[in-house]
Amino acid sequence: MTNKQLNKSQIFLVTGPMNIKVISGTVSVIGAEFGKGKTFSVPQGKKVPVETLPSSGEVKLQSSGKGRIEQLEKRTIPAMWDSLAQKIYKEKLKKILILGEVDTGKSFFTTYISNKLINNGSTVGILDCDVGQSDVGPPGTLGLAICKKKFLFLANQPADDIYFIGSLSPGLHLTLFLTGIDKLTTEASAKTDFLIIDTTGWVHGDGGRQVKHSKIDIINPDLVILLQRKDELEHLVLTVPPKKVFRLEVSKTASNTSQHDRKLLREMVSIDYFKGSKKFAIPLTKLKTERSYFKSGNEVNIPNKKVVYAERLRAWEGTLVFVKEALTPAEAGELSKSFGNIRQFKTGQEKYITIALLDGNRKILGLGSIEKIDFKSGKLHFHSPLPEKLIKKVCIIQFGSNRTDFSGREMGFISPGAI
Description:
By secondary structure, the chain is of the alpha+beta class. It has three domains: about 1-70, Jelly Rolls; about 80-255, P-loop containing nucleotide triphosphate hydrolases (Rossmann fold, 3-Layer(aba) Sandwich), CATH 3.40.50; about 275-419, no CATH class. Helix content is about 20%, strand content about 35%. The chain is built from seven helices and 27 strands. It has helices at about 80-90, 105-120, 175-190, 205-220, 260-275, 330-340, 390; strands at about 1-5, 10-15, 20-25, 25-30, 30-35, 40, 45-50, 60-65, 70, 95-100, 125-130, 140-145, 160-165, 195-200, 225-230, 245-250, 280-285, 290, 300, 305-310, 320-325, 340-345, 355-360, 365-375, 380-385, 395-405, 410-415. A seven-stranded mixed sheet has the order 13-12-11-14-10-15-16, with helices on both faces. Strands 17, 18, 23, 24, 25, 26 and 27 form a seven-stranded mixed sheet that branches. The protein has a five-stranded antiparallel sheet with strand order 5-4-7-2-9. A hairpin with a 4-residue loop joins strand 24 (about 365-375) and strand 25 (about 380-385).
């Protein structure tokens, strides 16, 4: 262990792995204040600025670990961030929407502002809308964390609730995406003093504009914060009252993350979520489904050796058939005379589809990955990290589009409505 005495208003960069204990005085770490006797840890691969507060007494730190501590010449966090935190607190600006492109430091900024508010005794909700690079909740979900205690890394905050999108991008799931934002915003507003909504970097093009404008309509934020390098977000707030818009320049320390690294980081979160997963089986008769055609119609018998299972769907939707091998155009055409439009799904392709597991009140208990739908035994086989006592409550499943193997690794996706 190493002891270090610091002067007032000094700034140090701590690189993990490192454990820090405050022996005397007070320091600020990403907005979180730590006084005498308090400890915090910086894991390997992470860097955090540590500031000694001007109002603090003598500051002494005790460090242990293989990381390093180096002094910085000047503060890396703009003073404007502190002014903004005070503005939010004093004016009781409850709903804060953060907009920014990819790699503009939205998560770091969210952490800093949250800690500043928590330092004042506030309860802060953080709604993570980045389904592809989620910090709160597993990938493919919107995650809500309700924070009463200061924290350093958003990814370490447990999700108090999630909304299942079932995709790593909102592009083909806009109705689900916006519904989830509305649901979790309403929930958080009743439980928190402040709610910070951290959004995706999708801010351009038809889809990006539509999603962000819809978010503003749904959330009706008290403040919209633009994290921009120049003026790349101005088109999103042209009709927002100027007093509700606050502009911040992106930190020069913000770094770009490659698509390859994004996938690795996303998989790390998913692998951690599915750690310790076990295999379960639930009778199909016990289950109801959402976001799929499967189990939404009436089972019918189709006299074709290729067909394993079939359901007649509602009205003009036709018939869903699970097949061992694809029906020929002639076979499908013949069946359509009696059964309408034939929707084919090859058995085995359901493997690794990510599903949400819900109880009878439609509360999401957690996620799972399908192993197979066994029509002979009449059971759904899947893997999930949920304990057996929660699995017993499952009676609804929501089908996603992304595939995840039983260890949490990405396995591609299926088109919405394929099953």
